[in-house]
Design a protein that fits this description.
The chain is mainly α. Helices cover 66% and strands 2% of the residues.
């Protein structure tokens, strides 16, 4: 079996939000539990990444140097946590960071040998489209589409598996794929976009919606000279038609997101606020700063300050777990990849899509969630960073531009 064929199977499977227990059973619970499950992509990335690590050699890039620095900081923090704070040591978290950051990155550098950027995107798009279609079919057959919309999707798909959105960052990956699909030439493009957008609406998640708006805005600003008034007016007309149709077909009072907005605007309504506890988490972090070692953080331990295990902020989590140098190293990797993506877009325009995605992650997603702690989304992100890193050298880019 050729490496190209294996890589294609890998790309098809990693986008599927299938979660597995360590004993091999597929996660199909319809409730949010603390089940110890990992996405299929996590296991596939580990196996393929190990194979590539020991069989292949790569030309060193600037991003590789930053990656090694970041991993070194990660390992130092890991050792300090293990040696000096052993009783609360949490190996799960470091594995959730380490395997995607190293192995998905290496796989990205490898698959660039076999797939163009457009083919790379298309495999991910069509795979997620197929899965989303099955999920919608399940909603129509077993419940109803209106039930799915008002209840953030159907958790149990034909009794086989669950994609409970809080567990796996499914909506964020949907927003990324919708953004990419918007600017590629695809067969049945509008059907693909329709299904994916319906799926995103069903999840009623705020982060991916903000991401999508921000990514389109950046794209518009970067390419404003390529947009005619005719195209802009067409977009506005289509948007108005969608809003009018949605108004008559959907009872907005039943929507999760609608109720969240009402909670924000009307303080007399009881319940949680729109921030989902994020503001309270930030306040707790600021209070914790006085006792936190800014150079090494608190290490990879089960935190007494954040016992719930989530910070709802990627920058805060990186800082608390790895000290000031860990988030800085990640930021430098992202900034370097953004710069290279925009440089590569002079040769192949779709590379700018990755650069725009990374900007949106830094400014939006990282400040309201932890997409690099969740393997399902993290593997997709590091895969794209690796792909950009493996494409040419800076000297080649300048020579071809």
């Amino acid at each position: 079996m050729s490496v190209q064929y294996i890589s294609k199977i890998y790309l098809i499977l990693i986008i599927l939000p299938i979660y597995i227990f360590l004993d091999g059973r597929i996660y199909n619970d319809s409730t949010f539990t603390s089940a110890q499950v990992l996405p299929l992509s996590f296991f596939l990335t580990f196996v393929l990444g190990i194979t590539i690590l020991f069989r292949n050699t790569f030309k060193m890039s600037y991003t590789d140097i930053l990656q090694m620095s970041s991993v070194l900081i990660l390992l130092i923090t890991f050792l300090i946590s293990f040696l000096f704070i052993g009783e609360n040591f949490n190996i799960n978290l470091i594995l959730l960071y380490f395997i995607p950051q190293i192995f998905a990155y290496l796989i990205g550098k490898e698959i660039i040998r076999y797939f163009s950027l457009e083919d790379f995107f298309k495999i991910l798009i069509y795979s997620l489209f197929t899965f989303s279609s099955i999920h919608l079919l399940d909603a129509v057959i077993n419940e109803s589409l209106s039930f799915a919309i008002s209840n953030r999707g159907t958790d149990n798909i034909f009794g086989i598996m669950s994609i409970y959105q809080k567990l796996i960052s499914y909506p964020l990956v949907l927003s990324i794929i919708i953004f990419f699909a918007s600017f590629l030439k695809l067969r049945f493009k509008y059907l693909v976009l329709l299904i994916l957008v319906i799926e995103l609406i069903i999840t009623a998640a705020r982060e991916p919606l903000a991401m999508l708006i921000f990514m389109y805005l950046i794209y518009f600003i970067r390419n404003i000279n390529k947009f005619s008034i005719y195209k802009i007016m067409n977009f506005i007309y289509i948007l108005l038609i969608i809003i009018i149709i949605a108004y008559f077909l959907i009872d907005f009072r039943e929507l999760y997101l609608y109720n969240k907005i009402i909670l924000l605007l009307d303080s007399s309504v009881e319940g949680s606020n729109l921030s989902g506890g994020r503001i309270e988490q930030l306040k707790r972090f600021y209070e914790y700063l006085l006792d936190l070692n800014i150079f090494i953080g608190e290490g990879f331990i089960i935190s007494n300050v954040f016992p719930e295990g989530t910070f709802h902020n990627q920058w805060v989590e990186y800082f608390v777990k790895g000290g000031i140098f860990f988030p800085i190293s990640i930021l430098l990797i992202f900034l370097l990849t953004i710069f290279k993506s925009f440089s590569l877009s002079k040769i192949e325009k779709n590379f700018q899509l990755i650069g725009i995605l990374l900007i949106a992650l830094i400014l939006v997603s990282f400040n309201i969630n932890t997409p690099l702690r969740t393997p399902y989304s993290s593997i997709i992100i590091w895969l794209m960073i690796g792909y950009v890193s493996g494409k040419y050298s800076y000297k080649n880019i300048k020579g071809n531009s």
